[in-house]
């Protein structure tokens, strides 16, 4: 293990970050081995540093939905907070740095698994989690120490990382300085200055060659340029010190992490090195190249999975009622996993060759497992041929697929289903009134004489509840065409708590639903999906969510042009692929505003 004072100094680096001067100096950028704590943590839990609390903390608070889609091309971009690498980005960056060293990621795995999970305290996208807590600091230090120790434990590993010259009996200064420059360029995602190389080189003072290399590896892995998206080296726009065009290396890094969640590859780095990335044609070619890579599609699919909460599932109930309800359905974790994979396949297919409306209206079958195909009443899709269609009139788009409909027990909850559409698909807040009476949020009890719709409607028929529920509950009632496993039905089974099947009753999915564009009469889920596909508010909501996912924060004044560009491409004639690529092509992507 490296010395305790060295580790404490590293922790101080993470807790405070200045913005000027040489590394290691008071008020410096914190990237050197002697950096000290330049600031105190933000209010919050003990040990939280800058970035603790909600994403964008310190920026003016405003209603996020007040930011319009009216683009003024000459307007400044919005102010963006300093962001650390997400845990996914951090792992992929480590993997790229130590690709030549066998077992490096395995050596780091224990410490990596102790890092806080992004999004564990965030209601929206995981990547909007900007916290730096004591757990993060401890984790980063432990990862750096484990990886550095792993490299130094075998001369062959050090040779793979730094060259054979690193294993001489004494320190080869030229070899050492070259390693600092080469490894630092990758870890910091830009070339190091001469001053930085000299300051890292001071780690060789008073120690043997092995400890010098180990110290550099450790120090660079806990430096802010490694752990944060630092953008400090741009050029002033029209003489304005607060508005910067990103430097070529900053732009390369922003683009790569945006599309790949990973650091720039060799080709992208080369365009930054020679400055050609600043050319519009070269930049657009690199955007296209990165977007054509499977890693970009993975990033897009992950967006929809998080937006639609696909990864949130606590397992199926083990009650007698559920056992009766699920007879013959193979209701297990494998069924849910297959349903989640179907969503990924549907999204990937229509991102490549479709538009946003297709995600609401598609009746194509992407069920690859036999159990899920049986639930839909179709043959499994083979994963390569053109997908066939689901039974006519039963399903349309994402909202009607099993992963969006499966509940943990035998019943459905129209309130939850409807609130999701209102809140997440139409971007209209669903706020419970103050002073709710006891039991207000508890589902109504089973009634052998009533359907789920009748029971839930009776619960909120009082004037206190009816007005609010009228805005979102009809969406959930239209989805009563599907049971708690996502099976299409025209009749609802009435099952008591002991698992006795008492009979069945017709399902009513006719609703009068309130959209921002006006009231609509809908006969069921297919018409609901079609109405959402045609809703301008739903299109705007998609643009807002994809902005938040991409920029890791809520939109602010100055983001109107990015939002407008996204919205422009989600209409009936638009391309979902172009919409998702638009963020990188917007002029604001190349600039940073300081306040």
Summarize the structure.
With 595 residues, the chain is mainly alpha-helical. Helices cover 45% and strands 6% of the residues. It has 26 helices and seven strands.
Please name the defining characteristics of this protein.
single chain; about 600 residues; mainly alpha; 3 domains; about 5% strand; elongated
Describe, in plain words, how this protein is organized in 3D.
The protein is mostly helical and 595 residues long. It folds into three domains: 4-53 and 84-227, no CATH class; 235-292, no CATH class; 310-534, no CATH class. It is built from 26 helices and seven strands. It has helices at 4-15, 87-97, 104-112, 134-152, 155-162, 173-187, 194-201, 209-221, 224-227, 248-260, 266-273, 280-292, 294-307, 320-325, 333-352, 356-361, 370-376, 402-405, 414-425, 452-459, 463-469, 473-478, 525-534, 536-551, 560-568, 576-585, and strands spanning 235-237, 240-245, 491-495, 501-506, 511-515, 518-522, 591-593. The chain has a three-stranded antiparallel sheet with strand order 1-2-7, with no helix packed on it. Helix 6 packs across helix 7 (194-201), helix 6 runs parallel beside helix 8 and helix 25 runs antiparallel to helix 26. The longest helix is centred in the middle third of the chain and has 20 residues, at 333-352. The radius of gyration is 27 Å and the shape is elongated. The two termini are 41 Å apart.
């Amino acid at each position: 293990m490296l010395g305790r004072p060295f580790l404490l100094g590293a922790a101080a680096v993470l807790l405070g970050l200045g913005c000027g001067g040489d590394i290691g100096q008071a008020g410096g950028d914190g990237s050197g081995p002697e950096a000290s704590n330049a600031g105190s943590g933000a209010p919050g839990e003990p040990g939280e540093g800058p970035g603790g609390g909600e994403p964008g903390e310190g920026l003016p608070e405003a209603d996020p939905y007040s930011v319009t889609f009216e683009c003024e091309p000459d307007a400044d971009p919005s102010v963006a907070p300093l962001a650390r690498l997400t845990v996914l980005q951090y792992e992929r960056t480590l993997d790229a740095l130590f690709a030549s060293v066998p077992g490096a990621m395995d050596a780091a795995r224990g410490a990596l698994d102790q890092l806080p999970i992004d999004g564990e305290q965030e209601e929206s996208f995981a990547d909007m989690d900007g916290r730096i807590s004591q757990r993060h600091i401890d984790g980063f230090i432990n990862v750096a120490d484990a990886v550095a120790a792993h490299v130094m434990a075998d001369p062959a590993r050090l040779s793979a990382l730094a060259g054979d010259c690193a294993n001489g009996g004494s320190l080869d200064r030229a070899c050492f300085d070259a390693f600092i420059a080469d490894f630092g360029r990758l870890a910091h995602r830009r070339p190091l200055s001469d001053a930085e190389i000299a300051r890292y080189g001071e780690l060789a003072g008073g120690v043997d060659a092995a400890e010098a290399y180990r110290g550099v590896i450790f120090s660079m892995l806990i430096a802010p340029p490694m752990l944060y998206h630092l953008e400090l080296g741009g050029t002033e726009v029209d003489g304005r010190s607060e508005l910067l065009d990103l430097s070529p290396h900053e732009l390369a890094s922003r683009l790569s992490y945006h599309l790949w969640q990973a650091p720039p590859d060799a080709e992208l780095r080369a365009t930054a090195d020679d400055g050609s990335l600043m050319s519009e044609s070269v930049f657009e070619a690199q955007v296209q190249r990165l977007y054509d890579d499977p890693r970009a599609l993975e990033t897009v699919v992950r967006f929809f999975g998080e937006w639609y909460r696909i990864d949130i599932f606590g397992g199926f109930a083990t009650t007698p009622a559920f056992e009766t309800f699920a007879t013959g359905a193979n209701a297990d974790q494998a069924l849910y996993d297959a349903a989640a994979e179907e969503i990924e396949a549907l999204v990937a297919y229509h991102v490549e060759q479709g538009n946003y409306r297709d995600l609401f209206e598609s009746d194509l079958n992407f069920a690859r497992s036999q159990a899920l195909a049986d639930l839909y009443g179709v043959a499994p899709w083979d994963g390569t041929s053109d997908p066939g269609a689901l039974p006519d009139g039963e399903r349309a788009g994402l909202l009607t697929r099993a992963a969006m409909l499966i509940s943990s027990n035998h019943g459905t909850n129209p309130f939850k289903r409807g609130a999701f559409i209102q809140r997440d698909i139409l971007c209209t807040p669903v706020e419970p009134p103050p002073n709710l009476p006891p039991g207000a949020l508890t589902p109504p009890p089973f009634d052998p004489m009533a359907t789920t719709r009748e029971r839930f409607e009776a619960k909120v028929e009082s004037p206190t509840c009816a007005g609010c529920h009228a805005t979102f509950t009809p969406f959930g009632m239209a989805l009563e065409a599907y049971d708690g496993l996502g099976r299409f039905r025209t009749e609802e089974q009435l099952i008591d708590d002991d698992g006795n099947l008492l009979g069945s009753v017709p399902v009513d999915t006719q609703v009068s639903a309130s959209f921002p564009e006006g009231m609509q009469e809908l006969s069921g889920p297919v018409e609901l999906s079609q109405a959402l596909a045609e809703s301008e508010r739903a299109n705007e909501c998609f643009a807002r969510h994809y902005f938040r996912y991409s920029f890791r924060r809520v939109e602010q004044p100055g983001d109107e042009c990015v939002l407008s560009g996204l919205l422009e491409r989600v209409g009936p004639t638009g391309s979902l692929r172009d919409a998702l690529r638009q963020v990188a092509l917007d002029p604001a992507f190349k600039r940073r505003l300081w306040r």
